Amino acid sequence: MHVAVLGAGYAGLTAVRRLERRLPDDAGLTLVNDEPYHLVQHELHRAIRRPDIADTIRVPLDDVLDRAEFVEARVESVDRAAGTATLDTGEELDYDYAAVCLGAETAFYDLPGVEANAIPLKRLADAERVRERFLDADGGRFVVGGAGLSGIQVAGELAALADEEGVDAEVVLLEMADSVAPGFAPDFQEAVRAELDDRGIDVRTGTAVAGADASTVELESGEELDYDGFVWAGGIRGPAALGGERPETRANLRAENGTFLVGDAARVVDDEGAPVPASAQAALREAKVAADNIAALVAHDREGTGGFEPRLDRYTFDTPGWVVTVGDGAVAKVGPTVLRGQAARAAKATIGAAHLSSVGAITNASRLVREEL
Ligand SMILES: Cc1cc2nc3c(=O)[nH]c(=O)nc-3n(C[C@H](O)[C@H](O)[C@H](O)COP(=O)(O)OP(=O)(O)OC[C@H]3O[C@@H](n4cnc5c(N)ncnc54)[C@H](O)[C@@H]3O)c2cc1C
Questions:
Q1: Which of 235, 269, 291 is at the close of a domain?
Q2: Three-class SS state of 148
Q3: Is residue 83 assigned to a domain?
Q4: If you measure from the C-alpha of residue 8 to the centroid of ligand 1, how many angstroms do you get, rounded to a whole number?
Q5: Is residue 158 part of a domain?
Q6: Distance from the CA of 140 to the center of ligand 1, in angstroms?
Q7: Which atom belonging to ligand 1 lies closest to the Cα atom of 32?
Q8: FAD/NAD(P)-binding domain: from which residue to which, for each copy (predicted)?
Q9: Cβ proximity of 98 and 255 under 8 Å
Q10: Atom of ligand 1 at shortest distance to CA of 264?
Q11: Stretch 333-346: mean pLDDT, rounded?
């Protein structure tokens, strides 16, 4: 019996650590990831302003795995019907059960010139590129496309970096929808907007990007915006290993036979039929359900008595709240309450630290709290 976990982000690392505890000792368990570390992606924007934070938000996988075998490789494709993952090493990894947790990639929607000219923000190398571009330009205009959770926080970091470096930079945040943080509660949107405005960020909602070249962003209105740096946070698509798709997945996270799809890699529909927002908090909670379901199926298979499969757990999306940072400011929505200022920053730091502790990275957790507060 062999179980594979593909990807070591929020979903993958949570799933593999839970499976280490729940699978029988003689079941093989393999984790595949294209980097030797887990990245706390919801803090990635911080690395634009504070490159040293990389050591805090990067957790070496060897330090937090117990018995799972770690393979550093890129998954090229997943054959869900056959139960096989093809790796860039040429190896074919056969599995009885797999949690596919490969996350999402940046979607450029075929907008002419955007992929070629904009910098996305998914990896530490992206944050380094944004920082270098900013420091090399020494001022000018930085355009951020997309005012979802990542775009808001990138714009905030760029504005704060300009202040810290004492350079004259204009940060423009473009959003196609009528408000920032589309899809979130109106009181959260208003507080985020106020925080962005307070930091002098030029927020333009109802403004769609139509294309770009090496120095200009073209808007759907026909207006052209010259830029010195262009960061694209306009949306996500599925991983290349899944053909760029985010397959719709039911609340038990099982996609086909032994393959489970978890986190941003899937469009999960929860137990109440609601689409689950792509987010770190959903990925973490889905992973627990998927790991428990895989463990239950492995136990059933080992009994070898045939009969009906066990009833699988189902995921229901239920959020304790949302927090974003905007430079040194922050906005938190906890239940009906919206907080700004130090309380919101503390909430953000606590969430990051709680996550790091939950994956066994205690030192990183305490470092994060020190750095954030
Ligand atoms: C700047 C920024 C800020 C954000 N802020 C927030 C926030 O405040 N709150 C929130 O809830 N969410 C936030 N998000 C979104 C959140 O980070 C994602 O929803 C979350 O990372 C999804 O978790 P995941 O485990 O599905 O995927 P990921 O965390 O992306 O993990 C995927 C893993 O798979 C690996 N991988 C990818 N492709 C391959 C491959 N082909 N082969 C092998 N390994 C591969 C990656 O290296 C990674 O380890 C933010 C995202 C960004 C970029």
A1: 235
A2: coil
A3: yes
A4: 9
A5: yes
A6: 30
A7: 43
A8: 1-286
A9: no
A10: 26
A11: 92
